[in-house]
Design a protein that fits this description.
Blueprint (H helix, E strand, L loop, with lengths): L6 E2 L12 E3 L4 E4 L10 E4 L2 H9 L6 H22 L3 H16 L6 H15 L5 H31 L8 E5 L14 H10 L3 E7 L6 H12 L4 E4 L4 H6 L5 E4 L3 E2 L5 E4 L2 H10 L4 E4 L23 H4 E2 L2 E2 L12 E4 L6 E4 L2 E3 L3 H15 L10
Helix pairs in contact: 1-2, 1-3, 2-3, 2-4, 2-5, 3-4, 4-5, 5-6
């Protein structure tokens, strides 16, 4: 069953409008973000392959969101594994194959691997049989979903402490790190929402985020939808806006953070960080604990996903470059920790030296969550 054949209209899901991920007990319903802002349509995933395709094609995107989606995708994978064979050994082997395929859909965003490893390590391996594991997988997927919602709220409160006593704040953001990219309020946009609720925010400036326009299609849409003042600008206007004194701070999300504090995020983030440094503007990163990769110290070791040349050579389906021209299309870049003013997490705000503050975060988290840390990358 293809994704295109499984679309729900907005009318049937009015209560879930703007919610990117919903598990209804039988299938995973995803807001198709490739159709925004022109259409709000939903995809009914009844097969884990549909979830994998949705992640790969950015129908669901944002590091926290794809981790949550993958957790629910494993429920569908487990059901198929159980139906695929009568013996437990084959069922388990098939499930692990399905899980690895899901895991490989987006190599840079660590939350995807984190969610899958958490369920496989904590639930599937200790279980006697896949049938026994199935309800536990569902419970764990729901827990990951709820945790993301709660930690988004905690990040929003923590991030707002960086702006205590300030009014008329103007924030620049890149890509989309909002409700569409998470199960909750958003990471970077969660902080924005908190500032807006506190009557501290004057305006958000949203980079359009070439080549797939997540800032234009998603961030501007999401903020405008919620009545938060937003101005859209092209990526190459960000430095100009800083030069003109229009920006007080930059807040972005992240797809992976190393132990030294190097940050992988949507391509173009590094350039924004350089411009912010040149104009003495603070550059903040908002990301949950699950975005930290404790196996990597340096950003140069982060795998960078390369995507199709057509994303650059075409605009809204119309060719905009000569046929046959070579294209470089990395989905992410890495911002060195020296350019990061602070990292906002659900456990509070981390500052340099990041190798110490991130180590302390890891210790604090594992100590407070000792019953569920076997999946963590130590």
């Amino acid at each position: 069953m293809s994704l295109e054949a499984a679309v729900h209209s907005l009318d049937t899901l009015k209560s879930e409008s703007m919610k990117s991920i919903t598990w209804n007990g039988e299938s995973l319903i995803l807001l198709d973000q490739t159709k925004l802002p022109n259409q709000e349509t939903y995809i009914d995933c009844t097969d884990w392959r549909q979830v994998a395709e949705a992640i790969k094609k950015l129908r669901v995107r944002g590091a926290p969101a794809i981790g949550v989606a993958a957790g629910y995708g494993l429920i569908l994978a487990a059901k198929e594994a159980i139906a695929s064979a009568s013996d437990e050994v084959t069922q388990r082997a098939n499930f692990l194959t399905f899980a690895n395929t899901l895991k490989e859909t987006r190599p840079t965003a660590i939350n995807l691997a984190w969610a899958i490893d958490r369920i496989v390590t904590n639930i599937v391996f200790p279980s006697d049989a896949m049938v026994t594991a199935l309800p536990l997988i569902e419970a764990e997927a729901k827990a990951i979903d709820l945790e993301d919602q709660r930690l988004n709220a905690a990040m929003a409160k923590a991030g707002a402490t960086l702006f205590e006593g300030k009014k008329g704040i103007r924030i620049l953001t890149h890509c989309n790190a909002g409700a569409l990219a998470t199960a909750g309020l958003g990471t970077a946009l969660g902080v924005v929402r908190e500032l807006h609720a506190n009557n501290q925010l004057e305006r958000v400036y949203a980079d359009e985020t070439r080549p797939l326009l997540q800032g234009a299609r998603l961030t501007a849409f999401e903020l405008h939808h919620d009545g938060i003042p937003v101005t859209l600008l092209t990526d190459n206007m960000a430095a100009y806006a800083m030069q003109q004194g229009l920006i007080d701070a930059v807040i972005v999300g992240a797809d992976r953070i190393t132990t030294e504090g190097d940050v992988a995020n949507k391509i173009g983030t590094y350039g924004v960080a350089l411009a912010a440094k040149a104009h003495n503007i603070p550059f903040y990163v908002a990301a949950p604990y699950s975005t930290f990769d404790f196996t990597l110290a340096k950003g140069s070791d982060i795998p960078i996903e390369m995507r199709s040349a057509d994303e650059v050579k075409c605009f809204a389906g119309t060719p905009t470059a000569p046929e046959g021209v070579e294209v470089l299309n990395p989905a992410f870049d890495v911002t060195p920790h020296e350019l990061v003013s602070a990292i906002i997490t659900e456990e509070g705000v981390l500052t340099a030296p990041y190798n110490k503050s991130i180590t302390d975060l890891h210790y604090r988290f594992t100590k407070e969550n000792s019953s569920i840390v076997s999946y963590l990358r130590l």
